[in-house]
Design brief:
alpha/beta, Rossmann fold, 4 helices, 7 strands, globular
Length: 157
Amino acid sequence: MILVTGATGFVGHQLVRAMRSRFPGRPIRILNRAPPQSSVLPDGVQVVLGDIADAKAAAEAVRGTHVVIHLAALQTNARVIQEMRRVNAEGARNLYTAAVDARVRLFVHMSSAAVYGPRTPLILSGKTMPANRSRPIRLRNSRLRKLFVRSIQKKQG
């Protein structure tokens, strides 16, 4: 079983369609906050409703999977920074923890160029600021990746 988060997004829905086409017999599950439109996903994809920022929902979605492909995230222009941290950092941590507990064989975390912010610098109070407002989230996720790798190594021996 393969779990895909962010499966209704730009990359995610194309990935799920490609996987269904290339591996027609492989079960695919998605974790999504709301029921997806029927035209977004190919037939036979299992939908688990929940929020990755909810540890129980993440654990339920990961249970029984061998592969987790984590694409879900909020972009810098989507919400306030606290909501981005809740979804992007806490959600990733929940998935990593659930994957370690479930002994998932492969965990792929893919990001987007959107984490670098708008293409032009932000101008506030006449001063130019770097367009990289999501750096604390990326650093936190980097720490989570190291924690995840260490957890896997401990469980393997």
